[in-house]
């Protein structure tokens, strides 16, 4: 059986990559911007936290969209130190 892949939200919750239907850049409630993902059951899941510049948010959005399109089974996508990464789960 295939291992699911996950994306970690800013609040620590985990969502299946296979359920993500959209990636967006939105205003953050505390000012600045954030990158969000949307699933069939959840809207606007913050995956970056507050970003100060729209250029950073746009780059992050494009980065996570690329990772989502090619992530391997059993990987976890996380945002840390201003960048997304995908790491295999043992």
Quick tags:
1 helix, single chain, 39% strand, four-stranded mixed beta sheet, alpha+beta, three-stranded antiparallel beta sheet, 90 residues
Description:
This protein has 90 residues and is α+β, with helices and mostly antiparallel strands. The protein has a four-stranded mixed β-sheet, with helices on one face. It starts with 5 loop residues before the first strand and ends with a strand.
Short description:
By secondary structure, the chain is of the alpha+beta class. Helix content is 19%, strand content 39%.
Write the layout of secondary structure elements.
Blueprint lengths: L5 E3 L5 E3 L3 E8 L5 E7 L5 E2 L7 H17 L4 E6 L2 E6 L2
Parallel strand pairs: 1-6
Antiparallel strand pairs: 1-2, 3-4, 4-5, 6-7
């Amino acid at each position: 059986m295939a291992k699911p892949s996950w994306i970690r939200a800013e609040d620590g919750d985990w969502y299946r990559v296979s359920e993500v239907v959209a990636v967006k850049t939105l205003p953050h409630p505390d000012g600045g911007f954030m990158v969000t993902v949307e699933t069939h059951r959840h809207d606007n899941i913050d995956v970056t936290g507050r970003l100060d510049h729209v250029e950073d948010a746009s780059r992050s959005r494009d980065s996570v969209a690329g990772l989502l399109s090619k992530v391997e089974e059993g990987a976890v996508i996380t945002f840390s130190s201003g960048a997304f990464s995908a790491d295999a789960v043992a």
